Amino acid sequence: MAGQRENTKLLTDGELDQVQALLGLPPITRARAAQASASKPERRWQGTTDAVFRAQLVSGLTSKLAARLAKELPEVRYKAGLPTIELTILEAAGHEAKAAVTEVFAEWTAQAPLTPSALDRRRKHQFTASGPDPNILDVANPDHRKKGGFPVNGRDTAKHLVANDDACKQMMTQYSFDPYTGTDDEAICLSSEILDPFYAANKNDLDECDRLGYWMANPDLGVIFAPRYLSGWDPQNGYNVPAVWQRKAVAYQKLIHEYIHVLQHPLLPHATSPAGQDPPRGTNTIKEGVCEYLTTQVMTHLARKPVDELDAIAAKFEGSPPGSGRGAVLQASLQKYTPPSDYTDAVDKVRQAIAVLGSDNGLLAAFFQGHTEYIGRYYTGKWLNGVLESSPGGPRSMPFPETFQNLDTLAAATGRSAAKIRQDNPQLTPAPPFGGQQIHLPGFHGHLMIVDTSGDEEACETWAMISAQHDIPASRIQQLNGNPDDMPARAWILVPDS
Ligand SMILES: [Zn+2]
Fold it and tell me: Full-prediction pTM beyond 0.70?
């Protein structure tokens, strides 16, 4: 097995559970898992029955939240008074960001089954802050925020502060208060007894905190919100000054992350959303953790470029004069790039999941090509209705390739006898159909044919895509599977290891 499938594997039962937990995905339903959760004692929170305890938590947490907000306000007021740049000056950073991501991941995205309209959207994608349909929007402009699907909402800021402030977290631990994964009553307590009244009392300050926030993106609409305020800059000096170059350099790195969102395969959110999430977005670890992990790969790639090349890139998006040392500044910042603090936990989880997967190729296949079977999710009538299992402790197996009706045709194609296949697979039922069963075939591995029906049209993998993914000639894979007239959509087919 080589090329993009190098070191990929279908997960064993135990690996499957680890990966689901690390990526924040709902556990795969099994009889065994259902039993385990049935025997877990039901959670109770003291505040549900003890009114004094509850009132103490509510007033304590509210005052910690007020203290945190007071700490935020001086900076917010400072930002509100700063001069602002035009967002159009960040467009060139968007073009260069797209070029950088393309250099690293074009081979993956070229082998992704996409509907004509999805493909067209991608081809036309360009970061722009002007015209009728800009996708670089002003984070501080309430109209832009509404248009980009994230209206200014200080209540969300309060929710974010309480979840991330150390003193608030400490108090929640002290009261064994878990409004996030605990009981419904705890969630209600935070929402209607703490956040609602706090927002009502501090609406203006909280809205200002949110409005004068940081870089954000709405990947569903493909838009990015950028701050326009800039400190250390006098507008009278114009744009061709180091403070503005630096803002453009920050934009370049932010837009690399945002452009990777654009390349996410449309099937991924469907395969990785918790039940009932509408529209499907996937978990935070999938959506942001994987995207930011891929961002670090692009940064590593760029950091290795010679300084002259980075000088030329910086000149293109900053407008800084070549030879002004900006390439070296860019290189230094790329070399010390680490994920923003909001993403650190999610990226850590992704790295741990990759350790279980064996390499990041399976994750890249899931993200760019919709091959979510490598992270343990696939479509059989509905998402998640199947489990991939290999024989525990034994050789890895795969789902029986559905391009074969019986063991005789499989024997003929693989050059071994039906008796030998039987001997290697005592678990197979005595007679066909074998579809849905596991089989172990040394020298071969399985490929799940991807079909994207997430839009109005349908997109199916081609033999050329499968060939490129596995680095095996298309004619050989086609012939091995009996030269089917139609692409066997959503079926497992057989691919030689080399
Ligand atoms: Zn993101």
Answer: yes
